[in-house]
Specification:
single chain; alpha/beta; Rossmann fold; about 45% helix
Length: about 250
């Protein structure tokens, strides 16, 4: 039986790969993102079982737009994949040291909180009353939550999702709903690094893995597909790393 899956960040990168898996399986997919043109192109490519709603999930109003659309479209939701996110600290930041940089540093911290925590929380909390029995929720953290991100704010924002998922799992477990977090390492072919990824940096990140390669969106989509399957019904409140062994390093 076809399920209804809501995938935020579904127009590009990991979210797009995840949505493709659901669409290929015949599920009804609702793509969510801020760029309507990107979502529209992806929805057309995936076929008639895929639709989209453009919304900024960092706001309650944006999340409500998604909830209204999903309820009108499907009535209930079987899968939530909150893949929207990003690092507001990538790129020129100026001097963040000391009190003189506090205003800029605070702006980056708040932006990462909105991009990586509130986009997930707003989506999940809005759709929670409309979850089907035995629904699946997958949130996205990062290897940075374990190793740091250089500036602190991105890693801290991602790590905030860990206890949130555990609390959700406890709240929803008696309905057979599972809640898990995937924490990827370096994943190629996404917009995450913008134009900051150099061949040297790519090589260094690949060398940190045990299998000597970067991850791909398809790797994460396969893991997500399993976590959202009926077979994974006893796996919940887990933070699952997918980084080719890069976390322990060599």
């Amino acid at each position: 039986m076809a399920r209804t899956a809501v995938v935020s960040g579904g127009g590009t990168g990991i979210g797009r790969a995840v949505a493709a898996r659901f669409a290929d399986a015949g599920d009804n997919v609702i793509l969510v993102g801020r760029r309507a043109d990107v979502l529209a192109d992806t929805a057309v490519l995936f076929g008639p079982t895929t639709s989209y709603v453009a919304a900024d999930l960092a706001t309650v109003e944006g999340a409500q737009r998604v909830v209204d659309y999903a309820v009108e479209k499907a009535g209930s939701v079987d899968v939530i994949v909150a893949a929207a996110g990003g690092n507001a600290g990538i790129g020129p930041r100026g001097d963040l040291e000391g009190l003189e940089g506090l205003a800029l540093a605070s702006a980056v911290w708040n932006a990462n909180l909105q991009l990586n925590v509130l986009t997930a929380v707003h989506l999940v909390e809005g759709l929670k009353p409309h979850l089907a029995e035995h629904a699946r929720i997958v949130l996205f953290s990062s290897i940075a939550a374990y190793r740091g991100s250089g500036s602190g704010s991105y890693a801290a924002a991602k790590s905030a999702l860990h206890p949130y998922a555990i609390d959700l799992s406890a709240q929803l477990g008696d309905r057979g709903v599972t809640v898990n977090v995937i924490a990827p390492g370096y994943i190629e072919d996404t917009e995450f690094f913008a134009d900051t990824m150099t061949p040297r940096r790519r090589g260094r990140l690949a060398e940190q893995t045990h299998n000597q390669r970067p991850g791909t969106p398809a790797d994460i989509a396969a893991l997500t597909a399993w976590l959202t399957s009926p077979e994974a019904g006893h796996v919940t409140a887990q933070i699952i790393q997918s980084n080719g062994g890069a976390f322990p390093g060599r």
